[in-house]
Amino acid sequence: MARREPGPFGVMEMGSVADVPRHWLARRHLGSVVGMRLTMVGCSGSMPGPHSAASCYLLEADGFRLVVDLGNGAVGALQRYTALNRVNAVALSHLHADHCLDMCPLWVARTYAPEGALPRIPVYGPAGTAERIARANDDPDVTGAFDFVTLTPGQHRIGPFAVTTGHVAHPVETFAFRFEHGGHALTYSGDTGESPALVELARSADVLLCEAGFPDLPDLPPNLHLCGRQAGEHAARAGAGRLILTHLAPDYDPEESLAGAAGAFGGPVSLAAPGQVTDLG
Predict the structure, then answer these.
(1) Cα–Cα distance between 223 and 217 in angstroms, integer?
(2) Is residue 105, in this structure, part of any structural domain at all?
(3) Hey, which of 88, 135, 154, 166 has its CA 20 to 30 A from 256?
């Protein structure tokens, strides 16, 4: 027999997952965040894989939660690490589906939250982000939930983070990000082929979170994705402290990408995995 107990959303009948409001189901991070924390929410390349959502990363500092990219399947996975009503901002590297499509369920969660519509949060993205999300959502106006801010290359401030953005090499307008906080720096490549701009953004960064969506084959197409070896070469040229490979396509062997990166970069190299946490500072 179900029992009734007081909780953060009033008195509820306890006894099944269905009885628990979705925001309460979201797991809170274990331990306090000191400095800047990166949590891998999704790291599958070009589409969700059997063990990971598409690209999505949670960056936290000073109680502020920034979601970087929100690809297919990411909103479900994100709730393992934070409640959706505690997200403070979103930054989108580009508008391909595997990096932005779960803005649609985030709109639903914020528009129809049990406690009522939530305040708007800023969404930083390329030109046309609002229109792209509205088309995908089949709703002409998604600005009731999101305050869209058009990114340009240069310096920005997002919550406690000093952010530098630059264009990288991909078929649509795409940004790489350098996030700085407390004397530490994290660079995220977005999707890119070989890119001098990425090297500059990653200069002396503590961590380069870099895509490795391609296998290392002859005559890779330019301006699309990197292989593991190329990601390692970018990290070496930048003098990054550590390289984490992400955007790992589910139909390629990630261990081959890891070996290629390790052969080109002398620092620590690892594969991103859902739930992996990296603390900087």
Answers:
(1) 15
(2) yes
(3) 166
What total of structural domains would you count in the chain?
A: 1
185: CATH: 3.60.15.10
Full domain range(s) for residue 210: 35-271
The CA-atom distances, in angstroms, between 199 and each of 159, 214, 224, 238, 268 are 25, 19, 16, 5, 17
Least Cα distance to 37 among 234, 156, 135, 179 occurs for: 179
- Residue 40: both structure tokens together: 């891998």
Strand partners, 90: 67, 123
12 pLDDT more than 60: no
Classify residue 227 by its DSSP letter: B
Q: What is the pTM of this model?
A: 0.89
Q: Report the pLDDT averaged over residues 123-150.
A: 95
Q: pLDDT-derived band of residue 31, with 50, 70 and 90 as boundaries?
A: low
> Residue 7: enclosing H or E segment and its boundaries?
strand 3-7
CA–CA separation, 210 vs 266, rounded Å?
15
